[in-house]
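Practice problem: predict the structure.
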Amino acid sequence: MGNKFNVKVNKSLIFGLNQEQAIQLDVTSKSGKNFHILQNNKSFNAELVEASFLDKSYIIKINANTYQIKIENELDKLIQDMGYTLGLAKKMNFVKAPMPGIIIDVVVKQGDKVKEGDILLVLEAMKMENALISPKDAVIKSVSVKIGETVEKSKLLIEFE
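Answer:
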């Protein structure tokens, strides 16, 4: 079945897409930020105008039309359902497990300086590897987990100074 994605176009149209469907899209890179798309025997030229990897939002120009694209996966939906938001995360001085899982990598240690968006650790949950990133620029006060440890939802993972 694979991962599921919701693709929101221009803040109104929402399309469901699974990993297999995404792989089967007929998109060819022409050069740099330019692509060729073939859909239902129709040809389209696309240009990636702007991309924000952290919040998975993009501005794409297809032929003469410009579209704002926002992509959410199952983890994004779960975090949103838990009530976490980016604004709130910037005020928090800790990172908790968004779901139960196994810690498969710890990238930081006590005293490390991290920037917003830096990977802190990797949590395997629901057969997916989820990189948990720093919500803000900070210094690591403590790391409460180690590689191989099983964690429950809401377990304290990392504290910031």
